[in-house]
Amino acid sequence: MSLEIIVLITFGAMLLTFASGVPLTFGLGGLAMVFGLVLWGPHTLYLTIQAAYGITLSFILMAIPLFIFMGNVLGRSGVADELYKAMYHWVGPLRGGLAIGTVLICTIMAAMVGIVAAGVVTMGIIAIPSMLKRKYQPQLITGSIMAGGSLGALIPPSAAMMVFGLISRQSVGQLFMGGGLPGPHPFHSVLQ
Question: Is the dihedral of CA 61, 63, 67, 72 positive or negative?
């Protein structure tokens, strides 16, 4: 069977799976297993289990649950709220000061937590009510939260850098050094 036909059959099966309403995880996983069994035989199951088990034994991935835990601690303890209030008092008098403060505190949270989703959710819970109360537009609110929160993938310690380093067999320390300079740059440019 040619590669083009395999690709067309795979995409057709994927679209049918999406249209059937099967959850994405189970649909894509099931399709991968079926096509793996058809194309490569029963060795596919063994290789899949072996690869998944090998990844879970990685020393690098041990830090990710701790980052998630730290994000929850920061959000539930009120530390993130206090940081937000301090940032508001610092840049509040500027035009758009609360949006600038939101970007800055999202950047700080991204650097502390290391996971984009944890920083965005924590700051969304804190910043959205405060900014809506001060008559900020919803587009500006979500834009400032996402702009600052997305820096979590670039500023060390970053869970995305850890996973990338594990998969690509690169030094996580060197990746952190590479993200250390450009990561905080948007934080600095907002202050200008």
Answer: positive
Does the pTM surpass 0.90? The reply is: no
Convert the pLDDT of each residue in 143-154 to its tens digit.
Answer: 888 888 887 777
DSSP letter for each residue of 33-94? HHHHHHHH-THHHHHHHHHHHHHHT-SGGGHHHHHHHHHHHHHHHSHHHHHHHHHHHHHTTS
> Alpha helix locations (H) across 134-191?
138-149, 159-168, 172-180, 185-191
Do 57 and 151 contact (CB within 8 A), yes or no? no
Q: Tens digits of per-residue pLDDT, 163-175?
A: 888 888 888 888 8
Burial classification of residue 72, based on how many CB atoms lie within 10 Å of its CB (0-12 exposed, 13-18 middle, 19 or more buried): middle
CB 48 within 8 A of CB 37: no
Residue 38 backbone phi and psi in degrees, to 5? -70, -45
**Dist CA 100 CA 143 (whole Å):** 11
DSSP assigned state of 134: T
From 113, 178, 191, 176, select the one nearest 150 (Cα to Cα): 113
